Amino acid sequence: MKKNYFLFFILVLAGFKIFAQTQEQKIKEFDAYIEKVRQDWHAPGMAVAVVKDGKVLLQKGYGLRESGKEDKVNSQTLFSCASTTKAMTVACLGILVDEGKIKWEDPVINYLPDYQLYDPFVTRELRIIDLLTHNSGVGNTDFLWTFSDLPAKEMLNRMRLVKPSYSLRSSFIYQNLFYMAAGEVIEKVSGKPWEVFIQERIFTPLGMSRTAPKRKYIKDNNQVTPHYEVEKKIKTVSYTPDEQIGAAGSVWSSIEDMTKWMICLLDSSKYSGGRLLKPATWAMMFRPAVIVPENEFYPTMQLIKPNWTTYALGWFQHDYKGKKINYHTGSLDGLTAIHAQLPDQKLGIYVFGNLDHAEARHVLVYKAFDVFALGGSTDWNKELLSLYGKIREKNEKIKKDFETAQILNTTPSLPLADYAGKYSDPLYGELTIELKDGKLEVDINHFESATLVHWHLNTFRGSYKKDWYGKALATFSFNGNGKIEKINLDGMEFSKTK
Fold first, then answer.
1. 216-248 per-position pLDDT tens digit
2. Smallest Cα–Cα separation from 142: which of 127, 128, 162?
3. Assign residue 274 a region: left if phi > 0, alpha if psi is -120 to 50, beta otherwise?
4. What DSSP element (H or E) covers 227?
5. pTM value?
6. Do the Cβ atoms of 252 and 215 come closer than 8 Å?
7. pLDDT, tens digit, for every residue of 98-154?
8. 2.40.50.40, 3.30.365.10, 2.40.440.10, 3.40.710.10: which CATH number matches 8-395?
9. Residue 389: partners with Cβ closer than 8 Å, 6 or more residues away
């Protein structure tokens, strides 16, 4: 009998050793896969972490902080969390819910009485939860912070000028400014700015010492530089000003710190000192709130082919191999992030990158789920390189077709000097045009500029100063007297005032 017990014990140890070796081998192979993916997508630098069952399987930096320089990415290098910040903002609101200071269904105007939308009915009916689910009826308003440096409160004030794109709660259009409004609610209720509240109630308790609510709080140079591919060359670009977007996407962190956040969320918000949220509030974060229509999908979904897609509070969701996935991407100019969970397996992955929209992040998410939980041999790198390569080819064809459609041998209706002047709009701000060396120099809110040359008829085209923005397209319209009345610059319409 003792021999049998001894044999059983030996077999258990051997099985555990084989499992451990298999897990170790999986990590080693995934580590090598990450580096190959980084190189194939031409990302200068990345950082990746994988956690499972409350333990860190991998946390590592890859490549360079800035292309052409020697500084390498490590586990302490700071990247932009961008829109993965949104889940953190939801957790902040959840803390206030648990303290009885707010309810998810409270009207927003109870806390922000000056916050008005175009439709008075929506202003009255908008609830705190509506700030988090992108189904308010208002279309994308990112132009308010990509073409101006308005303070957050002024951006929110101008929301009353944005005409609705659909009725309240009837569809889904991704919207950053409502998360900014959520940050204002946090400040109003707690008496502390969002960046102070999130530091005190999330980062400090979790020991996230390499995490800053905004880039301006970073104290060292171990941070990445953003990159963009322009004319098939990868170049460094300027940082997106994150001072005002705040609760929608301004957090910076290291991959090591993100393991703490991931483990906490996967364990119903528990951490060594307690828990961030009550179990019911934590569950509320992941309760599907709205169906995400196909036109709001990432192209990656063309390969995943989910049966359903939803958005919860700060999380996209879909099914994968019969399991529920929670995830959110983050993108600022030249910087990327993704946070993804396979909650049934308590498996999470976080990926940082410093090349604009390099979808290596999607590759690594589904590969990690396959390797560490669900099985499968799909080479997601190969599949997604092919998919996004075809999308690039399609976009190049659209660009070529547009340029082919140019009407040749036309001239402007008026002398170029007549197109110069001042233009304004209550929503979009101020635009000034000066004629210099036969070109129209356009200044937008003293924040962005473009140099335009005649394209055809009364349309002008040229490069933005931030050339990664692409080409600007401006069309002038006239009143009944043949005088210039308005300019439409990439969908933003300004009236001539002088």
1. 999 999 999 999 999 889 999 999 888 889 999
2. 162
3. left
4. strand 227-230
5. 0.93
6. yes
7. 999 999 999 999 999 999 999 999 999 999 999 999 999 999 999 999 999 999 999
8. 3.40.710.10
9. none
